[in-house]
Amino acid sequence: MPNKRSGGGLSSTQQAAKFLGVSVLAGAVMAGIALPAVGALGLAAKGSVEGFDELPANLKQPPLSQRTTILDSKGDQIASIYSRDRTVVDLKKISPYMQKAIVAIEDARFYQHGAIDLKGVLRALNRNAQDGGVTQGASTLTQQLVKNVAVEEAGDDPTKVAEATQQTLGRKINELKKAIQLEEELGKKKILENYLNITFFGQQAYGVEAASRRYFSKSAKDLDVDEAALLAGIVQSPSRYDPVNDPQEATKRRNIVLQRMADVGDISQSEADKAKKKPLGLDVSRPKNGCITAVKGAGFFCDYVREVFLNDPVFGKTKKDRAKTWNQGGLTIRTTMDPKAQKSTQRSIKNHVYQKDEVATAATVVEPGTGKILAMGQSRPYGMDVKQNETTINLSVDENMGGGAGYQPGSTFKPIVAAAALEGGMSPGKSYSAPYEMEYPSPISVCGGKNWVNTDGTKLSNENTAEVGPYSLRKATALSVNTYFVQMIADIGICPVTEMAGKMGVDRADGAKMGQNPSIALGTQEMSPLTMANAYATFAARGMYCTPIAIESITQRVGEKSKSLEVPKSTCSRAMSENTADTINTLLKGVVEDGTGTQAGLGPSRPSAGKTGTTDGRYAAWFVGYTPNMAGAVWVGDPAHKRPMVDITIGGVGHDKVFGGRVPGPIWRDMMAGALAGEPAPGFTTVPLPEDRPRDRDRDRDDDNNGNGNGNGGGNGGGGDDSFIGGTDGGTFPTPEFTIPEGWIQGQTNGGNRGNGNGGGGFGGFGG
In order along the chain (768 residues), what is the average pLDDT of each group of 10 residues? Predict the structure, then answer.
């Protein structure tokens, strides 16, 4: 007996024998259904039929994977996503020519035979015996449907796909039984409809509707006879008969189908001959799939929606379950994205930071009191072309949601320190000496009943030598005085600050625990713009923190029916008292009226509040602000943490040094002005603050590049050591230097290899 050929295949004789076995089995099945067993064939078939009857009776036919449509809050499409480009349609919406063409070429006796075509089996057996191999199959459309269902159920798992298509006797038996069940349960028309919706037509098109739109840019109901014949011909071998890449082979195959249609009487010979002379007439629509196709610059928001779906247990117990539902598609996802806010965000970004710039910006807007994400954008577009400054890293979100390791928020973290102090009973009139330079106080209490100790006498300083206290909380917040807030955290301890941050949803972007050291007051823990925007929304909502949400509702089409899916809801909780929040709002309102954030103000008719922040080495600059009805965060910097923003051009404007008030501030102002256009302009609930003692000196800040500070805000934090050079920003030039000892700040010291895909995340002192 011949052995297997090299490579593990079967010899021609073995293939023929195998086909014979399956063919005899098919005959045996027919006999077992309709006739008593007779002679040797009947005895041989008896065991096969008994085994056949023992197979599970249930036929699993999963819903066909379809495209998912993502909508904004107004119902307009943002993007279309699919693992398999398919639009399921009823048979009545498929051209009669298409129905006839696929039957003629794939199973001409479809309407005459049952699940198994015995005549076709015998014809194929005779042909294969003459050829000495398996050159012709005998599967009916129903059997092909069963196999396609198995392949569909296997998804993108190559092992399962192989199992669904392997040429084994067991699979053939199972396929035959399921074909019989389908014939009994569905009937011919429904089988044909399902077949045309599941079949692969090449060029990423699954189902006849997607194929018709891909090759001819028209609906399947409008296909002419020659077009239908072309599509029907592709099914046998989508790669071989691909009309885009091999029009000659595709034309030959189309004409074979046309002739077959004439032979079986579906069309006249003259119609067939006329159609054969036509050119292919392609009008190809290229595949448009995924978040890269999103409109309004919403590619990253689209990607965030996908991450939410894949990570939230509400959509399935395991990630595998959630991925299966996502890939199955057929979802219509209505999101929280406000088209006006998104448009304004992208317009402001485009006006202030160019795609080609050495640094990037990312901005996020949320709604206080609901957690709804209204807008999300960045200057580097969603895409794969690194040379064009494209990226798929969402610079607005945490690492586990498709973002990077985050950026140090600098002085934008100081209001959280103040909130912790006020909530603990500290008076808003509290005054500290706040000298220009000082050693870190020691010891300072941390969580767990322990203390942090300044063993090396490490110092910090303010942004310029004119900043010498005493200062009240109001003035220290407006001017972002470093030494004031470090004295404050020394007074109340570090644990109340990290606990308040936790209540406001403020976590490190890389998922690590918050550091237990006093430099946290200066914003040394890396955060994402979404985190900071949502934290400040807590102030706007008078102390109520709401978890961020991006999805309003989801409808899933399953077969011919639609059902609603449960979606994550925002969970709101009180993070601080209304009085504490109102006090912070009063303080931060002063920042934009007469502090470091004046360039971010929205004008007298729309009350706003916020805080600037610039980090060590000027690798990042921030403005985080809000009105009672909208909160937003803007970050500007090098995602790789390699380019300090000194002597740099951003958006066509040159800067000696970048401050939070000068680049992020105007971005925030323009973004929010457009997003809030036509919206109500409610005021804040403010509280009276103690007056500062008169100061017999010039204004503390220099906003016109002529100040006395030397501007040495840079540091080596991103270069891999533990030295930090003073705080920054707010519309003035930082000058001080101070050093933080090793181990003070949680994270990597080799900041050049940290951050969002390529690096980022050095350490340092911060100012406004």
Answer: 38 44 46 34 38 41 81 96 88 97 94 73 55 53 86 73 71 78 85 93 93 96 98 95 95 97 97 97 87 92 96 94 90 97 97 96 98 97 89 96 94 97 95 95 92 91 88 93 96 97 97 92 95 98 98 88 93 98 96 85 92 89 97 96 94 93 95 96 93 45 34 32 32 34 37 37 43
Dihedral angle sign, alpha carbons of residues 365, 768, 395, 603: positive
For the chain, how far is it from start to end, CA to CA, in angstroms? Answer: 87
Tell me the two tokens of residue 30: 């027919």
Distance CA 293, CA 666 (A): 29
The DSSP result for 271-316, as a single string, is HHHHHHTS-----------SGGG-STT-HHHHHHHHHHHHH-GGG-
Cα–Cα dist 329/86, whole Å: 9
The count of other CB atoms within 10 Å of the CB of residue 572 is 15
Which of these, 297, 355, 347, 344, lies nearest to 651 by C-alpha position?
A: 355
Is 698 within 8 Å of 739 (Cβ atoms)? no
- 3-class state of residue 253 by DSSP: helix
Question: b/e map of 375-385 (b: 16 or more CB within 10 Å)?
Answer: bbbbbbbbeee
Strand partners for 562: 557
Contacts of 512 (CB under 8 A, 6+ apart): 746, 747
The owner of tokens 């039957």 is: 103
- Residues counted in the chain: 768
SS3 407: strand
Cα dihedral 321→322→327→330 (10° resolution): 110
Q: What is the DSSP letter of 522?
A: G
| Residues 236, 259 contacting (CB under 8 angstroms) | no
Neighbours of 264 (CB within 10 A): 14
| Interacting residues of 17 by C-beta distance below 8 A, sequence separation 6+ | none
Contacts of 52 (CB under 8 A, 6+ apart): 29, 32, 173, 176, 177
Strands 572-574 and 630-637: unpaired
Report in angstroms the alpha-carbon separations of 708 from 556, 654, 705: 63, 21, 9
Quickly tell me which residue has 């490190």 as its tokens: 508
Q: How far is CA 349 from CA 35, 339, 342, 345, 571, in A?
A: 77, 15, 11, 6, 30
- 355 burial level (CB within 10 Å; 0-12, 13-18, 19+): middle
Whether the CB-CB separation of 512 and 398 falls below 8 Å is answered with: no
Q: Does the CA dihedral 536-538-541-543 come out positive or negative?
A: negative
